[in-house]
Design brief:
heterodimer, A: about 350 residues, mainly alpha, MetI-like fold, 2 domains, B: about 575 residues, alpha+beta, D-Maltodextrin-Binding Protein, domain 2, Dipeptide-binding Protein, domain 1, Dipeptide-binding Protein, domain 3, 6-stranded mixed β-sheet, 5-stranded mixed β-sheet, 19 strands
């Protein structure tokens, strides 16, 4: 197990190094001048030169990269060209907002996806199976931002049932101000006993979480169905049925436990995908998370912010994959031998 | 039940019927109860009244034409805007953060809209005068004005602010005429100029003219990020209470504001939600989540004209669309060709499609309502026959290829650029449309490699302050060795002379300056180094319960919140 973990960790470091080099190079290849963007449309040549020097953009690329990596390893991820504040601070301030949205989406996608997948497998070839497969395809195919817009039109504009955008109502800061402790509004409101804020936050979380959950839900349902079908065809399952065990016991205790392993991998990878997949949903819902910051940074060619977000995404993927591998190894000893 | 033994070998698949009803009912019940609890608490959160002492003005549904009764507590104006913040430093500011800064800071004076009876409104300065030759300007400072940090506004504070703006301001060039500024007494500043210039207009600029607390200036000099923490050091009616990057800005009234008048209602707080998407802003306005949306989508705004719950605002703005011909490239170096290309366009269609009808064809590069605009400056109107004649006379054969660059993020340009291509195609000219980000578009236009430069260039322009003579006419078409804004690269000594002379007269004889500028614009239109498409209009819809909204074209990115108040 120790050797397994060491191998994975070494691989992760190599991946992160590669990501940093690729992202750094790609960002510099964008045909745009961040100094000019920083100043605005009235940028004068001498101002551009001054700001380029100020931002270190006049140095050779390898020097810029080495300086960046040295600073990053000591906790200095640079200063955002757009906000003029440390990139790491900007990321950490926004990360809870994005994670809260992602967790909410996964809270919907995982149980619903698995349940639908099991249902679909149990009713193979019948209307529930067809229905679930349709839902899966739609969930996977429909762009999240488009689904987000549809949800807004339907639930806000037409039904006046759910809010349009934002993480909380603008009135909340005046009526029931929420004290920020962890940055996760649901946790902070529960800790401080601010039930109005808890309800308001949940209310605002519903639509963006649904929009974000659609893709992983579809994927998880499909994968669960597929692995369940394979497992349900196994001899031991047939034997269990022959012995008269209840279907629920067979499906959920015997079959699902074996079928879930590949699904866990998918869940892990989906979680990593959602770190960046949330960008468009955040833009549509004006969600103050990493997504809006990332989009603004890309549009304004904010190099330090782009690098920081890309590296964070890479770290997220690597860590999640590591966790998934460890969970798989714990659940299935055969994995440790490979 | 006996334990399972090793199963016997089975022959063939065994089908066992399963039913959904065998699923555990407890889990389902728990799930439903959990969902009900969450929804109930959410509904409870919506329905619970605001506790006293912290009440807010409720944004009413659109169906109601009047606001809800205002309980005791702060009166809050909720605004949606796409205005981002490049810096909180009032000296360096040169972008859309002017929306916020214009409510937290004040200049020496404000320029009024063209329809006002008085040209200026005093602000930090109560009066001003210039010498007969326009080389010396004296401003009297208002007594008793305080900065938000408690410092008193003095002549020395004004001097320091202007010197800082001249030295390293985002719009430092507006102070180019300034030679020295002296605090001749505690409440008087005198500006000595290198050449005559309208310092009243300069001192009323949206950029580079804010009067800032000297204490803050000193702190900023020591720490370049001082203001970025959200510190404000102005004299305006509002102060910064808090801001969250990319999310919102919350301002509160400044209790020591010199301009406060007893008995008038103002919003105690202004909460601006940064909402980049115009459609989202529209939905927020329609749904009552905000009282004011500053960037409604142009294509949807006509629906508010017939809505009795909204007042439809349509006013001239500071902005216009100009096109450049690269006069250094053949055959655009021939004035006949440029005139032909000017005659080929349907300007009505360009206004209808580009501006969605909210614009008027330009009379030269100065927008309507801004000095030295004149409706006497000629316009081109579509005349394809005459255009063809001119092209033939100039020896231009069908098949000429031109490349036109425009800003990819500018929706107006995206809409009307194809109309130009289509119009020129009728003359046998093939135009390649090249959308680009504005920084790349400008970088290419200023390339040292002349062959890389475009043939035509579209730009949205606006003057930095209310003198489009020294800005639009000078910046866009005056000769320059290295192009800055003159991206037609046109050099005309007669035009330069007219504009230079007019500039020196603006401070002393504005009418004479206007006459010179009009001559310059007549020459400009005739020689056609550029295309003058249209002056845009500012359009928005304001709920009828919101009073006091005043649009001033001289402050294009600003909205002034202090005069606003609920109707009742």
């Amino acid at each position: 197990m120790k050797r397994f973990l060491l191998n994975r960790f070494a691989g992760a470091l190599i991946v992160l190094l590669g990501v940093s080099i690729i992202t750094f190079t790609l960002a510099r290849l964008i045909p745009s001048n961040p100094a000019a963007l920083y100043i605005g449309p009235r940028a004068r040549p001498d101002d551009i030169e001054r700001v380029s020097r100020q931002l270190g953009l006049d140095q050779p690329l390898p020097v810029q990269y080495l300086v960046y990596m040295r600073d990053m390893l000591t906790g200095d991820w640079g200063t955002s060209i757009g906000t003029k504040r440390p990139v790491l601070d900007e990321i950490l301030n926004r990360l809870p907002s994005t994670l809260e949205l992602i967790f909410a989406a996964m809270l919907i996608a995982i149980p619903v996806g698995i349940a639908l997948g099991v249902l679909s497998a149990r009713w193979r070839g019948r209307p529930p199976d067809i229905g679930v497969r349709l839902v899966s395809i739609v969930g996977v195919s429909l762009p999240a931002f488009f689904l987000a817009l549809l949800l807004q039109v339907f639930f806000f504009r037409n039904l006046h049932l759910l809010p349009l955008a934002g993480r909380t109502s603008s009135d909340l800061r005046f009526t029931n101000p929420l004290e920020s402790i962890t940055g996760f509004n649901l946790i902070d409101s529960a800790i401080t006993g601010n039930w109005v804020a808890l309800g308001d936050t949940t209310y605002h979380l519903i639509l963006p979480a649904i929009a974000l959950a659609a893709y992983p839900l579809g994927l998880i349902a499909r994968m669960t169905r597929s692995t369940m079908l394979e497992t349900l065809d196994q001899d031991y399952i047939r034997t269990a049925r022959a012995f008269g065990l209840r279907s629920a016991l067979i499906d959920y205790r015997l079959a699902l436990r074996n079928a879930i392993l590949p699904v866990l991998t998918v869940i892990g990878l989906t979680f990593g995908y959602l770190l960046t997949g949330s960008f468009f949903v955040e833009i549509v819902f004006n969600w103050p998370g990493l997504g809006t910051f990332a989009v603004h940074s890309i549009v304004s060619v904010d190099y330090p912010a782009i690098m920081g977000i890309a590296l964070l995404g890479a770290i997220g993927y690597v860590v999640i994959n590591l966790i998934v591998d460890m969970v798989q190894a714990w659940l299935d000893p055969r994995v440790r031998l490979t | 039940m006996r334990p399972l033994s090793r199963p016997a070998r089975l022959e063939g698949p065994v089908k066992v019927r399963t039913t959904a009803r065998e699923a555990t009912p407890r889990l389902r019940l728990l799930g439903v109860l959990g969902a009900v609890a969450i929804v109930a608490s959410a509904c409870g959160a919506k329905a619970s009244p605001a506790p006293s002492g912290a009440a807010v003005s409720a944004a009413p549904s659109v169906a109601e034409a009047t606001p809800a009764a205002t309980p005791s507590g702060p009166l809050v104006l909720k605004v949606a805007s796409s205005a981002g913040i490049t810096t909180w430093d009032p000296i360096k500011s040169f972008s859309t953060e002017a929306l916020y800064l214009a409510n937290m800071y004040e200049p020496l004076l404000w320029v009024n809209p063209p329809s006002a009876s008085e040209k200026f409104t005093p602000a930090i300065a109560t009066s001003w005068e210039s010498s007969a030759d326009g080389m010396s300007w004296t401003f009297k400072i208002r007594e008793g004005v305080k900065f938000h940090d408690g410092e008193a506004v003095t002549a020395d504070a004004v001097k320091q602010s202007i010197e800082a703006a001249k030295d390293h301001g985002g719009a430092s060039f507006i102070w180019a005429p300034l030679d020295t500024i002296t605090a001749t007494d505690p409440l008087t500043v005198t500006m000595k100029l290198k050449y005559a210039a309208p310092m009243d207009l300069v001192a009323a600029s949206l950029y580079g003219a804010w009067i800032v607390s000297p204490k803050a200036l000193a702190a900023s000099a020591a720490d370049a990020t001082y203001f970025e923490k959200g510190i404000d050091a102005g004299t305006g009616p509002y102060m910064m209470e808090s801001f969250t990057p990319d999310k919102e800005v919350l301002m509160k009234t400044f209790d020591g504001y010199w301009g406060a008048t007893a008995g008038t209602t103002h919003y105690d707080k202004v909460l601006v939600s940064m909402t980049p998407e115009p459609v989202t802003q529209q939905q927020m306005l329609d749904g009552g989540e905000v009282d004011l949306a500053l960037n409604l989508p142009t294509e949807n705004i006509a629906s508010y004209k017939t809505n009795p719950n909204f007042a439809f605002i349509e006013e001239p703005s500071f902005f216009n669309y100009v096109g450049y011909f690269n006069v250094n490239k053949k055959p655009l170096d021939d004035v006949r060709v440029r005139q032909a290309l000017s005659l080929a366009l349907s300007y009505d269609d360009i206004v209808t499609i580009g501006a969605q009808g909210y614009g008027t064809q330009s009379h030269g590069p100065v927008p309507a309502g801004v000095f030295p605009y004149s409706a006497d400056v000629p316009q081109y109107h579509q005349d394809l026959a005459k255009a063809q004649e001119l092209l033939t006379a100039a020896g231009v054969q069908p098949g000429l290829k031109l490349e036109m660059t425009y800003t990819s993020s500018n929706q107006n340009e995206v809409r009307f650029a194809p109309l130009i291509k289509e119009a020129y195609a009728k003359l046998g000219i093939d135009v390649t449309l090249t959308p680009m980000t504005f920084d790349l578009q400008w970088e290419r236009a200023k390339s040292e490699d002349l062959a890389k430069r475009q043939d035509m260039f579209l730009v949205l322009y606006w003057p930095t302050y209310s003198d489009a003579g020294s800005d639009n006419l000078w910046s866009l078409f005056h000769s320059s060795e290295k192009p800055f804004f003159n991206l037609s690269y046109w050099k005309n000594a007669e035009y330069d002379k007219l504009v230079d002379e007019a500039g020196t007269k603006t401070a002393t004889d504005r009418e004479a300056a206007q006459a010179e500028y009009v001559k310059a614009m007549d020459l400009l239109v005739d020689q056609a180094p550029g295309l003058f498409f249209y002056d845009t209009k500012f359009v928005t819809a304001i709920p009828t319960y919101l009073q006091g909204f005043q649009y001033n074209l001289n402050y294009p990115f600003a909205a002034f919140f202090y005069p606003m108040h609920p109707a009742n």
